[in-house]
Specification:
The complex is a heterodimer.
Chain A: H1 2-9, E1 16-27, H2 30-33, E2 35-46, E3 50-54, H3 61-68, E4 76-81, E5 84-85, H4 91-101, E6 102-106, H5 117-128, H6 132-145, H7 161-173, E7 179-183, H8 191-206, E8 210-214, H9 218-221, E9 226-231, E10 234-239
Parallel strand pairs in A: 3-8, 3-9, 6-7, 7-8
Antiparallel strand pairs in A: 1-2, 1-4, 4-5, 9-10
Helix pairs in contact in A: 5-6, 5-7, 6-7, 7-8
Chain B: H1 13-24, H2 30-62, E1 68-72, H3 77-80, H4 87-96, E2 100-113, E3 119-127, H5 130-135, E4 139-142, E5 152-156, H6 157-163, E6 176-181, E7 184-194, H7 200-207, H8 216-222, E8 226-229, E9 241-245, H9 252-266, E10 271-274, H10 275-317, H11 320-328, H12 333-370, H13 378-395, H14 397-404, H15 408-415
The chains are: A alpha/beta, B alpha+beta.
């Protein structure tokens, strides 16, 4: 059963965007504090695929997302992103990958509270070196695309939860990323706002973005083409 | 990877983001800015005040006549009367240094106004017209007495103002004063007024603080009050002191050595010293002012740097989430480090400019208070400004490293 799950987790053999082989992530040292969050994960995600990662709390979903997003490095195993082995990349290269190829959407939105919606969306473009005037234009277009053209000057504290998450989606998509990683994107939203945010993620997927969503909500997981279930740091099932 | 090519060099991004961050979050930097403004203002003011006083002292000392050599008795009472100086010695001194010598006797006495409404103790310096050529005192008004003028005198600015308060215009033509010589009053015409030599007495009178620290010898030598013809006190061959001007091309220190050698051969106990030596020793002694100034400035900025480092560290701790978000969105560690450094540098630059403006006002006020023109020199601005900026940037290095070391995953997990 586990072997079958692994085979399915490795996809259909198209152009792989993400390839994990035997990825482990261990926190702490010594018997008492050692935690194995990921235990030999094999996972392949094809270009423009939409997968959902589910599993109970503590199963390693968020750790997996952090590894996929180059925010964390595997303790063992290999992770190839867009054909490039990431373990040997410097902090600068990994940061550039995050900046150009990976869009993030978090449950807690993670917007800068002192900056306006527009400035939050401009952020990755500024770090990419885009001139502020060009970054502003692109950010405004991104905010328009998520229906927040009239809220660009508002700070996160002046926006509803749904609006904040749409700003976060705009910030993720303004990079024109290869991959969109979403960690419980509707976790802090009501059903209406949750659907709206998922519609935006669906639209991104439809435009060719590879989407990996961490969720424990079945309704969200249903939108994915493939659902990977984690349990105790291992892939315990893949559907369909 | 995307084909987008950056239009701003990667390392310039923190510069842009850092300056923008300071402007957008100025309230966050308010405490640091105020602390730095106070530190810069006090450092600029301290440096300017001490260096202005130092400049003033140096300027004054240069005005004492660096080519002059003083010869006078040893102040030790057991040796005082063994000086044996005579008018003919004075002529010999002139020959030894290819210059000119002015002999003098000194007599403490009383001077009073013609109507005897005021009376003050003065030093009467009995000399010849050669004194004017040798000592070259600056005449504020009138002239020095000439040969054959036995009823004329020259007073210094301070005496003139004391005895003739109404004549503060320093017109020396009209007044006369009575000088007591051997208990007898001698009426003398005041034909000239000389400036208080390098204005030191006037200043010491005002401050008084250094009066007790000054050598009595220096007081005795430098602060003659009334210059009178030698004939007034008899004009014998014995003199008490002489002032010699070294001729062109003669080193006054070498000249003093020659005179010293000559007097030793004669068995005289008189002291000989070139004013150049005296000035050099004073300048050496006042060099400590530079050390004190530098030390105090360093201490002010160092203590400020410690405070600023602490405050920045606290501020950085409150910015972990922001930094984590920036890292997630693509900022690398070096960019975060540079951003914090740029923020600190921007705050330091603004503080330095405001501090400089405040110091400009403070130095003017201090100058009025001390009676010394205090001005911010270019060297004060450059030294304190550049050093202060470096200290603040160094103080921000630790917080900047701390910021650059923020692990976004750890922060994001904690936030959840």
């Amino acid at each position: 059963m586990e072997q079958r799950s692994t085979d399915r987790a490795n996809g259909s053999g198209g152009a792989a965007v993400i390839e994990l082989r035997g990825v482990c992530r261990v926190f702490g040292q010594g018997k008492a504090s050692r935690v194995e969050a990921l235990k030999g994960i094999d996972l392949t995600v094809e270009r423009a695929e939409f997968i959902a990662v589910t599993g109970p709390s503590g199963s390693g979903k968020s750790t997996l997302l952090h590894v996929l997003g180059c925010l964390d490095r595997p303790s063992a195993g290999t992770y190839r992103l867009l054909g490039r082995e990431t373990s040997r990349l410097s902090d600068r290269r990994l940061s550039a990958l995050r900046n150009r190829q990976i869009g993030f959407v978090f449950q807690a939105f993670n917007l800068l509270p002192g900056e306006s919606a527009l400035e939050n969306v401009m952020l990755p473009l500024l770090y990419r070196g885009v001139r502020p005037s060009a970054a502003r234009e692109e950010a405004m277009a991104a905010l328009e695309s998520v229906g927040l053209a009239d809220r660009i000057g508002h700070r996160p504290g002046e926006l509803s939860g749904g609006e904040q998450q749409r700003v976060a989606v705009a910030r993720a998509l303004v990079k024109k990323p290869e991959i969109l990683l979403a960690d419980e994107p509707t976790g802090n939203l009501d059903s209406v706002n949750g659907r709206a945010v998922m519609d935006l993620i669906d639209a991104a997927h439809a435009s060719g973005v590879t989407v990996v969503v961490i969720t424990h909500e079945p309704s969200l997981a249903e939108r994915a083409r493939r659902v990977v279930t984690l349990h105790d740091g291992r892939i315990s099932g893949v559907e369909p | 990877m995307s084909d987008d090519s950056p239009t701003v060099p990667r390392l310039l991004v923190p510069l842009r983001v850092g300056i923008r961050s300071v402007w957008r979050h100025r309230s966050r930097f308010l405490l640091i800015t105020l602390t730095l403004i106070a530190a810069f203002a006090s450092s600029f003011t301290l440096s300017a005040t001490l260096s202005s006083v130092q400049r003033r002292i140096r300027g004054d000392l240069r005005g004492v006549g660096l080519d002059l050599i003083n010869i006078h008795p040893d102040p030790d009472p057991t040796r005082f009367f063994a000086h044996g100086l005579t008018v003919s010695d004075c002529e010999r001194f002139a020959g030894l240094v290819s210059g000119e010598c002015a002999p003098a006797n000194v007599m403490p006495t009383l001077a009073r106004t013609e109507d005897a409404t005021d009376e003050i103790p003065v030093l009467a310096l009995a000399t010849t017209p050669a004194w004017d050529r040798v000592a070259r005192h600056e005449l504020i008004a009138g002239r020095f007495f000439g040969a054959g003028e036995t009823d004329a005198c020259v007073v210094d600015e301070w005496v003139y103002k004391r005895l003739f308060p109404e004549g503060a215009t320093l017109d020396p033509n009209a007044p006369t004063l009575d000088l007591l010589v051997a208990g007898e009053p001698h009426r003398l015409r005041v034909v000239g007024v000389v400036r208080d030599p390098f204005r030191i007495r006037q200043r010491f009178e005002e401050w008084d603080a250094m009066g007790s620290a000054r050598s009595h010898l220096v007081r005795f030598m430098e602060f003659k009050s009334v210059y009178v013809p030698r004939s007034l006190i008899g004009g014998g061959d014995t003199i008490l002191l002489a002032v010699v001007r070294a001729g062109d091309g003669v080193d006054p220190i070498d000249g003093a050595a020659r005179i010293r050698e000559y007097l030793e051969e004669r068995g005289s106990t008189a002291w000989v010293w070139a004013r150049q030596e005296w000035v050099d020793s004073i300048l050496d002694a006042t060099a400590f002012v530079d050390v004190i100034s530098g030390f105090l400035t360093f201490m002010i900025l160092a203590v400020t740097a410690l405070m600023v480092a602490t405050v920045i560290l606290i501020v950085i701790r409150g910015r972990f989430r922001e930094i984590a978000v920036r890292r997630v969105e693509g900022a690398d560690r070096r960019q975060i480090l540079l951003q914090v450094v740029v923020e600190n540098a921007a705050v330091a630059a603004v503080s330095a400019v405001v501090g400089l403006a405040l110091a400009a006002g403070a130095t003017r006020w201090l100058g009025d208070l001390l009676g010394v023109p205090v001005a911010l020199g270019r060297s004060d601005v450059l030294l304190v400004g550049v050093f202060g900026m470096l200290v603040v940037i160094a103080a921000g290095a630790l917080p900047a490293r701390r910021a650059a070391g923020v692990d976004p995953v750890e922060v994001i997990r904690r936030e959840l």
